[in-house]
Prior knowledge:
Number of helices: 11
CATH superfamily of the largest domain: 2-enoyl-CoA Hydratase, Chain A, domain 1
Number of domains: 2
Distance between the termini: 28 Å
Pfam family, one: ECH_1
Number of strands: 10
Helix content: 40-55%
Family: Belongs to the enoyl-CoA hydratase/isomerase family.
Keywords: Lyase
Shape: globular
InterPro entries: ClpP/crotonase-like_dom_sf, Enoyl-CoA_hyd/isom_CS, Enoyl-CoA_hydra/iso, Enoyl-CoA_hydra_C
CATH architecture of the largest domain: Alpha-Beta Complex
Radius of gyration: 19 Å
Structural class: alpha/beta
Protein name: Enoyl-CoA hydratase-related protein
CATH class of the largest domain: Alpha Beta
Bound molecules: octanoyl-coenzyme A
Strand order of the largest sheet: 1-2-3-5-7-10
CATH topology of the largest domain: 2-enoyl-CoA Hydratase, Chain A, domain 1
Amino acid sequence: MAYENLLFEIRDGVGLITLNRPKALNALNSALLTELGHLLDEIAVNEEIRAVVITGSGDKAFAAGADISEMQPMTAMEGRKFSANGMNAITKLETIPQPTIAAVNGFALGGGCEVVLACDIRVASTKAKFGQPEVNLGVTPGFGATQRLPRLVGAGIAKELLLTGDVINAERAHQIGLANHVVEPEELLNKAFEIANKIASKGQLAVKMTKQGVNEGLNMDVERGLQYETELFALSFSTEDQKEGMAAFLEKRAAAFKGK
Ligand code: CO8
């Protein structure tokens, strides 16, 4: 499928998605969000792709939020549809089997920050800025921030960001656990790909089951989560990768995983 608001390429088993509306600071309109949902559906079933990096085009923004000019005249029901479309696409980032890494190159505000929150790992450039400024516009977040931000950084810090609309820099984002790493702008994609390539070199079934274990476990009580981990662990022994990974260790050689 051809995309008008996204760029996509595959580099050695790592998918690179670029949000591509630079004139509007990559603001997320309906067309972009629909395309993102379709692209993630394609990625989810593509076994060639073992990790995904997502970034914004241009040097200013990852995404400066949902598209305000599209949203301004909306009725409540139109707003609901807009939110559901975005929620659907952004939740796919969280639930596709492959790990996702946000490479935050500039403003990640509102819906842009919510895309970042749905990724598994976040790398920020020193130029990145994060915030949930929805209260400045008289609306609540609509693509997951009230739920994902407190789970990531704790309710107290999340509420301060959500209720004040404050924009924070990369260093503060790192301090609160919103960014895993902060690097110079020219190193951003290298760092994101370094992590993605490392993940891509591991046993892929184990990688996917581990992501699933964390995601599903966060919605369970600890006892059921631990039981779920036991089941995933058992399941990993049904794979060729488990036999190969452990044999390679014992034979003191690198494992040749097949993702089977
Ligand atoms: N939507 C639409 N266009 C935008 C957006 C946006 N979110 N952000 C920037 N743009 C456009 C500007 O209108 C401008 O267009 P033009 O050149 O045609 O005038 C162009 O991008 C460049 O922007 P600026 O001139 O404003 O650039 P500055 O460097 O002066 O400022 C900022 C950069 C600080 C990032 C500024 O653009 C800004 O504050 N943007 C809006 C940030 C914001 O409030 N984001 C949150 C939006 S709300 C949201 O995301 C809710 C998500 C949930 C939705 C739920 C559905 C119901």
